Amino acid sequence: MKKMDMLHGSIADKTWSFALLLAMTGICQQLFNAADILIMGRFVGKSAMAAVGSNGPVVGIIVTLFIGISLGANVVISQLTGRKDRQGVTRAVHTAILSSLMGGLIMMAVGELAASPLMALLSVPEEVRPLSLRYLRIMFLALPGILMYNFTSAIFRSQGDTRTPFLCLFISGIVKVASSLFFVLGMGMDADGAAASTVCSTLLSSFMLLALLSHTSLSVHLSLKEAAFDLSMLKKILSVGMPAGVQGAVFSLSNIVIQSAINSLGTEVMAASAAAFNLEIIAYYVINAFGQACTTFTGQNYGAGLLSRCRKIFRITFLQGFCAMAAVCGLILFLGRPLLSIFSTDRGVIDLGYIRLAYILGAEVLDLVIEMVSGFLRGFGKSLGPAIMVTIIICGSRILYVATFFQWSPTFHTLMAVYPVSWLLTDLGMGAVLFYYRKLYMAEDRKIEI
User: Fold this and answer.
1) H/E element holding 225?
2) DSSP per-residue string spanning 322-386
3) Fewer C-beta within 10 Å: the chain N or C terminus?
4) Which among 306, 328, 310, 307 has a CA at the least distance from the CA of 318?
């Protein structure tokens, strides 16, 4: 692991390299996940493709909750690193690792019990339900590995290292695709084969990162001798991470409501939405990467008391995020139909998939504002305000929209309009939150007590 100096020198080149590798990590992860949709669509059929896609929001709500909590670990470790508190960093690292392990095991058990009721909640069609249920049950077995990977990655990112998590994910992703092909083509499995490959790959990536942490000489070194659960450190992590996790989970919760509406429109719409999601999510990973760069760099500089540098970080990462987002969204929209045809050759699926891409990517700049403001304030340890705003507006507006406008006009066009509408309303709320915290980040440089 090579530590990045976030407190001195130029900012733009460091945030760019940090965010670029983080975006590549997310994109590669999604491409490897998209391989499941592709393999189902090409070698099994439309029903298997729909079964995999319909479970995305369910797994997403759990994973994003703990990704948010892992961001709390990122912020706390970043701030302690800025203060040069090596002992505090050690306590935070071990507490984060133990928390992710326990959380993964608990959520795996809860998920197995809730899998069947979730099928009814999502209104999964009867012809797809058996496949969907098998896929979901096996996916829940992967939760400990998924959560461990995200927490260990957050520890690496707190030191400015996004290269190591990327390499580990890339290796495990190759294993995922290879094992998925083996299970489906070699053993005759369908959606459950794709889920089994996910279990294998996530365990591999998390074990690789744990091994590397145990061999580093930096303060984030992982040691069995020092493994201890620090309750006060957990409270600090949760004070930042839990609101961030709730914010991400609310996005996923609102997407479950939307997914249920999508499912009511039939298997073809389900398949089209699943294919489009695997393209549009690439733009989100780019946006999220710059938001996390803003969080990590702001966290270290806030810990060091460099508030003027924090403001500069926000301006630079926002501009970089906008440029990268515009380029990615434009490219996907330009190549949308050929890219969708990779997942399915069905003309109806391609046409419906492009409708989703146009609605979401065309308004992605609204999502950028949410991610950047949230990331900036999270670096100061202030994640509750953005989380409350997102919870109220995103979740509330989407549920209300589906219950009213979609019921009045139950078409795919009407449903997809929920994304830009909810993002715009949330942007207004995030502007108010940023104004509320202005005294925090507009202050002069000073020593910070954490």
Assistant:
1) none
2) HHHHHHHHHHHHHTHHHHHHHH---HHHHHHHHHHHHHHHTTHHHHHHHHHHHHHHHHTT--HHH
3) C
4) 310
- What the block records as the tokens of 319 is 């501009």
| 180 phi/psi in degrees, rounded to 5 | -65, -45
CA atoms within 13 A on the CB side of 224: 1
Instruction: List the end-to-end C-alpha distance of the chain, in Å, as a whole number.
Output: 26
Tell me the pLDDT tens digit for each residue of 104-137: 898 888 888 887 887 777 667 777 777 778 888 8
Pairwise CA distance, residues 231 & 94, whole Å: 11
Q: Rounded to whole angstroms, how far apart are CA atoms 208 and 169?
A: 9
CB 398 within 8 A of CB 414: no
What letter would DSSP give residue 444?
P
pLDDT tens, residue by residue, 5-47: 888 888 999 999 999 988 988 888 777 777 776 776 666 666 6
Q: In Å, how far are 51, 82, 441, 443 from 301, measured between CA atoms?
A: 45, 6, 11, 13
Distance CA 415, CA 24 (A): 30
3-state secondary structure at position 122: coil
> By three-state DSSP, how is residue 217 classified?
coil
